[in-house]
Amino acid sequence: MSISEHTTAAHALTFGQRGFLSRFGPSNRTMFPWVLMAPTLIILFAIGIYPFLYSLYIAGHNVILSKPYIPQYFVGLYQYQAVVQDPEFWHALRKTLLFTVQAVFIEFWLGLGLALLVQRQLQGVAFMRIFILIPMILPPLVAALVWRYMFYPGAGLMTYYVGAVTRALGLGEIPFLSDPVIAFQTLVFVDVWEWTPFMFLMLSAGLASIPRQPYEAAEIDGAGSWRVFWTITMPLLRPAILIAVIIRTMDAFRTYELIVIMTRGGPGNATTTLNVFLTKTGLEFFDASKAAALSLIMMMIIIVMSFVFIRVFRSKTEVAE
Amino acid sequence: MNVIKTTAALAAGLALWTLALPAHAQTEAQKALAGTTIHFLAPSMPQFAALVKFLPEFEQKYGIKVVVDEVPFENYRQKSLVEMQQGTGTYDFFAVDVMWLAEYAAAGFLEPLMPYVKNTDLTDADYDIDDFLPRVISGTGVFNDTLFTIPIGAGPVGTTFRTDVAEKAGFKLPERFSPEFTTQYMFDAAKKVNNPESNMIGFANIPGRWFWGVTYLPYLYAFQTPETKGDEYVDKDWKISINNERTVASIDYFTSFKQFMPSDSANWGIGEATAVYQAGNAFGTWNYQDFIKGFFEDPETQAKVAGKNVHLHTPVGPNGVIDPWFGAWSLGLSKDSKNKEATWTFIQWLTSKDIQARATQYGAGPSRHSTYKSETLAKYQPWWPGVYEFMLKETNPDERIRVPEWAEISDIMGEEGNRVWIGEIDSKTAAANMEKRMTEAMRKGGYYIPGRDDLPKQQWRDLTYYDRLPSTWN
């Protein structure tokens, strides 16, 4: 291809592009970005906005999927009222918040401790890093099943070995999944086992991004390690902490597989969280409207919680800066 | 002489030809269905496993392929209702528990079956719908006077005990339905042999939250008086009537077995209790008649207990009342099936006299007169013929009220009852909570709309309704 041919081709391409763009004309030019975004917007609408709007519609009616013979009509805010007047909702909300706070609190401090330990570049750290991440790699369903069998009455590994110790101490068997308090704590334990690696990963990344200069300055000033941790590490780690805590809080708030597989909300209703209550309402009693109202209320709670986190962390970060 | 020879040859030929014929000759309409594939949704349970063994025979004979999707029992209702509600016709037929028929049929998810039964092009001539026990077929498959499903087995709930353990302890267990087997007797016997140090618990009860709708109810019933029978859950005006001293006493009785069980037993379901019994570590446990062969009497998988058991009814209560339990599974044709004729061809073949009798050797239960009287049943499951009269005259298909709200009612009972087991509340509080929450469920179901005059009839107050000849249903 000669130089002139190249020039002609380039001209044609430029001209062609102009021609294509010119189709939108000065008045239609604002449309072009929308055309480019259209596929994404359509998908977003189909999988995000439409289900949300449909949930709003369902929550405003009286749809019971297993009773299609009941006439459907608009009930206004009745379903929301039915949810908040249901004592089971408040019980489940209390359990959910308790579970979320306990799990995220323990995971955060354990994750941070491990991240700080690994940051010290001790011998065997690379192996330790991989080892720590294993629980997070397992699908939640598999992890829940594994732990369910570990705590299986009379035959599980944990039941057997811990039972041997407690029997030797004269304490008898520990009813891991049969006592209301212990069953709840067992679930928190398994959640901590599974998700501490996530905190570790996020906080490790945060620690790696902190510049060395403040530490060097602190060392020259003779600051102790405790003081360095609270005045340098923690303030500079705040953005990473914010993201990690928000993600884990949202996740812990919606924990489902672990609870359903290990206790199904029992014994009694000791481990019935909002998600378990939601599933029972929607997929066992098929009360789609009440379930939709409940899921929208859950969404609002998560939004409010995230908003509060962001505000608190931002204000603290601004003060630190 | 030639005439005799010719006649003998003809007779022999005819006999050979008759033997060579399949049990049921196919009609032209059935032959036209060859090549169809039908889909069946079923729970993973022993009686369905027994029936699945016959699929190759059916496929070979009719050329219709049957694809079975098995789902764990605890997920089955949810999965089946979601499938039915979507109306896609993915599954041509479903296994239907007796307690869910009202929910499925009222919602219009199932196809009425009597037109198919009477269709001689699709139903074999010797199908004989009247061979089914009246209470079994009407109790299992009839809703609003219309036949929606065909039973594959129905039976009572009972208790299973180790005879050798009783003998060692110096007593002999009574026969099934003996008035001697009372609630007090059962508790005393369990107490007598209970010895956790020797790995023998008195009775492996099933207190898990999700099982009370099955395992506790025989005791709720046993603690009634002859006058209160029929009012266990609702009175004649459909008002919930469970908050009373009989319910409280039955919960107290049920939870009294906690003293024999390990401290981690609060979530025990059928699986855990059965496993403990199979391992030889329990004197007694709960049974459902259809599970006996698969759970307790298989020498290959239950070597420690097979052949050492006695299978009794649940005990007689303090006022002489016995639980008229009725449990059953049946096959229902989906309203949205695109292969209704092929599906019915399979259902009628599987529930025919021949297959029903043969299936008993693999653990399937009987629902026909002829099956109860078959030698196969007597040989492989000798504990069945003894309940024939009970299923014919005593059983009550509405022992658990068959209303679309039952799933919620059952869940409420389980949750409140299990809270008593773990010591969170007492039995009086549980009964009061049950009444309050069940009332709300019934209110939501529209039972208390002022002026409503189309509430369903409470058929359990006059069981002759269920004694109609099967062929007379719509």
Task: Give the topology, please.
The complex is a heterodimer of chains A (321) and B (474).
Chain A: H1 3-22, H2 25-28, H3 31-59, H4 78-84, H5 87-119, H6 125-137, H7 140-150, H8 157-168, H9 180-208, H10 213-221, H11 225-253, H12 257-262, H13 274-284, H14 288-320
Helix pairs in contact in A: 3-14, 4-14, 5-9, 5-11, 5-13, 6-9, 9-11, 11-14, 13-14
Chain B: H1 2-20, H2 28-31, E1 37-43, H3 46-52, H4 55-62, E2 65-71, H5 73-86, E3 93-97, H6 101-106, H7 114-117, H8 134-141, E4 142-143, E5 146-147, E6 149-155, E7 157-162, H9 163-168, H10 183-193, H11 212-215, H12 217-222, H13 245-256, H14 270-278, E8 284-288, H15 292-295, E9 309-313, E10 327-333, H16 340-350, H17 353-359, H18 369-372, H19 375-380, H20 388-394, H21 406-421, H22 427-444
Parallel strand pairs in B: 1-2, 1-3
Antiparallel strand pairs in B: 3-10, 4-5, 6-10, 7-8, 7-9
Q: What's the name of the CATH homologous superfamily of the largest domain in chain B?
A: Periplasmic binding protein-like II
CA-CA gap between termini of chain B:
57 Å
CATH class assignment of the largest domain in chain B = Alpha Beta
Identify low-pLDDT runs of chain B: 13-23
Name the biggest interface. Answer: A-B, 32 and 34 residues
CATH H level, superfamily name of the largest domain in chain A: MetI-like
Radius of gyration of chain A: 27 Å
Quaternary status: heterodimer
Q: What fold name goes in the CATH topology slot of the largest domain in chain B?
A: D-Maltodextrin-Binding Protein, domain 2
Rg measurement of chain B, Å: 24 Å
User: What percentage of the residues of chain B does DSSP assign to strands (E)?
Assistant: 5-15%
In order across it, which strands form the biggest sheet of chain B? 2-1-3-10-6
Number of strands of chain B: 10
Structural class of chain A: mainly alpha
Largest sheet of chain A, in brief, is:
none
Order of helices and strands of chain A: HHHHHHHHHHHHHH
Terminus-to-terminus distance of chain A:
61 Å
Q: Shape of chain A from CA axes?
A: flat
Family (chain B): Belongs to the bacterial solute-binding protein 1 family.
Pfam families (chain B): SBP_bac_1 (PF01547)
Subcellular location (chain B): Periplasm
Keywords (chain B): Periplasm, Signal, Transport
